[in-house]
Specification:
Catalyzes the oxidation of 5,10-methylenetetrahydrofolate to 5,10-methenyltetrahydrofolate and then the hydrolysis of 5,10-methenyltetrahydrofolate to 10-formyltetrahydrofolate. Pathway: One-carbon metabolism; tetrahydrofolate interconversion. The chain has a six-stranded parallel β-sheet. It is built from ten helices and eleven strands. It is an alpha/beta fold. It binds 5,10-Methenyltetrahydrofolate. 5,10-Methenyltetrahydrofolate binds next to strand 4 and helix 10.
Amino acid sequence: MSAIIIDGKAFAAGLRERLTGAVAAFGASVGTAPGLAVVLVGEDPASQVYVRSKAKQTVEIGMRSIEHKLPASVSQRDLEDLVRRLNADDAVDGILVQLPLPPGLDATPVIALIDPFKDVDGLTDASAGRLASGRAGLVPCTPLGAMMLINSVLPDIAGAEAVVVGRSNLVGKPIAQLLLQQNATVTIAHSRTRDLAAVCRRADILVAAVGRPEMLGADHVKDGAVVIDVGINRIPAPDLGEGKTRLVGDVAFDAVVGKARAITPVPGGVGPMTIACLLRNTLTAARLRRGLADTAV
Ligand SMILES: Nc1nc(=O)c2c([nH]1)NC[C@@H]1CN(c3ccc(C(=O)N[C@@H](CCC(=O)O)C(=O)O)cc3)C=[N+]21
């Protein structure tokens, strides 16, 4: 049996295409396009790449991009003041503070300040609480994107066994909430889980979000399972040349691809969905803040 390779890159492109239409319709009725403010502190090269890519995609679908670049030496207080100003700015619909912050700055109080109606990363306690109690709100981008990919092969997951490996606030816990919302039977496994492979082998839907390169292999996968790999790990690749690296997921793709019914690759799986869902959330935030219905895109 050969697995469906779920093409997250293509799915994300389709989502952006639909968003372009929805953004144009929003602009025609409200008079302005949704605006996304991205705050980048410091010079971390990987963060700069992400932020550039976010800004480019934001503009490509017709939304406004508002970039704030601050030096790594910025004070906690000045950073928090910027978030307060963005909260108060009517031209800003979404606020994203790129993580991690440089050493010496504490992300927790910065995130806590973000207006929950502008929390396009879904990281505030208010957003987490809304998700946990099944009320409308902004859902973290990576979990939202992962769910869209699951639903692309399994539109109805009621009663299915779902195992999420990883319990982070950013990914594991919110994905578990989304699976539960769709009536899956959800298990959250983690570093202290006894006989992880046996737990994983129960899964009709296996979500890997641990951040350990190729940790889940054929032993962890039931025949015919849908495998969603959220991990993005950069590892040395001496075979490609001295000092070269490559991206791998938390799943040993080659070992699993023959057993799974469908699987997301890394790169090209969940990763591209993250930014597309950030754009989706910005449109959602712009609608919710104006009391408009958040219709499907
Ligand atoms: N406030 C905040 N929100 C975030 O959502 C956030 C953040 N901070 N800090 C950094 C992480 C990381 N992140 C990714 C986005 C896209 C890809 C992505 O598109 N990856 C491509 C590969 C990219 C490559 O080749 O390096 C893929 O998997 O195919 C990966 C990772 C968002 N993050």
